[in-house]
Amino acid sequence: MDIRSTVLGWREEMVGHLHNELLPFWLDRLWDEKWGGFLTQWDKDGKDSGVDEKSLLAHMRTIYSLSLAAMYGHDQDGRCRELAGRGVQFAIDNYWDEVYGGFYWLFDRRGAILIDKKIVYGLSFAIYALSTYTKAFGDPVGLFYAEKCFDLLQLYGAETSYGGYWEMFERDWTLCGPGAEGGDRKTLDVHMHLMEAFTALYGASGKEIHRRKLEEIITLIEKRILHPVHKTGIPQFFVDWKVAPQIKFNVIWGWDRYEGDGGAKANALDNTSYGHNVEFFWLLSDALRKLGVSAQPYEEMFHHLLDHAVTYGVDKVHGGVYVEGSLDGDVVYDKSKEFWQQAEFLIGMLDAYLAFGEKRFLEVYGNVHRFVFDKMINHEVGEWLALLAEDGTPIWSHMSHSWKVNYHTIRAATLSIDRLDRILNRI
Asked: What CA–CA distance (Å, rounded) separates 390 from 334?
């Protein structure tokens, strides 16, 4: 592999995708001219699918994506800044609970509240998005509301007996019930996203309390959420951090294809996501850089995570990344190819190469890059397909809904370009 020419080729392809396909797809469609807020329900042709739903998750992820693209120099005639700012103000005016604090979870297109619960997964993205918005554009209103969300989590969400955070609350911050209500569970997903949120919050505020809580959640994930031997991520736990069967909650995100499976999914006590493991690696690496802390104490754990992902999670025949497998790596449970795992591998493999200099990580990046550009991106429309079969045949062909929006795709393109530039600067 001629590394320089290969990396230059990848960069050119990624810049073209971001500037000519991905950002235009969203900038041309986002704003709801009738009711305000963001439209995120798009079919395979990029046309409005008609789903009468707007979500806190999609709204905040969009603010984040636009802010990140602008922060890295990819704003398109100031449109990212304009739409992000309109989105922030709309969320404050329409989605914020003036009585109990926090953002509601789900709305119809007119803005009527459909689910008024306080879901920490959504609030983590509010912190992430609003902090990034302030960092990108200097508007203090984003950080003000990010800090309000953070403070509410410390007041109502912190679980002080065993550490970590409760995740599912009623509107008034009463804890939801057990089981499918989610009130007795802690998850990798939420705590990992709180880590990225606290990283962005500390980066925007510089406050000691935000630094301390970021350090706490890093330690907690390392000690409680990763498997003690394999260092792979475990999805769900009870309050005392005993491993819990992975079940579907009543308020859900990203479980579409498991509908009808009943409560728990197959292999509910022994499964790990290749995408989450690589995402955790690069998010923690980023957090350590923001903290000014050496990554050396974490390198053994990083090698475990990366070795597992590269060895078992990558399809050497068809290309791309599988969904999930066993904690020890012996079995791949789901060989389909979901959009977000591909996105996280793009960033993660480049970060792994920058950290360790091993050529195999660039080779995996090339595998996934080629799969994404040849199979996953709908180039005629501009966005990525949501889910493909092992061989790359589309299973789902829609461009977006309330959880499959722009966060993974725009972030992957933006940060891959940044990492590819870093690699070129080293050659």
From this structure: 9
For residue range 240-256, list pLDDT tens digits in order: 999 999 888 888 765 55
CB 195 within 8 A of CB 127: no
CA 310 to chain centroid: 20
In 211-339, which ranges are E strands?
A: 236-238, 272-273, 324-325, 332-334, 337-338
Please give the Cα distance from 85 to 66 (Å, whole number).
Answer: 10
Contact 118, 102 (CB under 8 A): yes
Q: What are phi and psi of 345, to 5 degrees?
A: -65, -35
Encoded amino acid at 400, one letter? S
Model-wide pTM > 0.70:
yes
Average pLDDT of 329-342?
93
Compute CA distances 386 → 14, 304, 350, whole Å: 19, 28, 23
Residue 223 has pLDDT above 80, yes or no: yes
Environment class of residue 294 by beta-carbon count within 10 Å: exposed (0-12), middle (13-18) or buried (19+)? exposed
Dihedral pair phi/psi, residue 184, rounded to 5°: -110, 15
SS3 category, 261 = coil
Q: List domains and CATH numbers for the chain.
A: 3-253+263-426 (1.50.10.10)
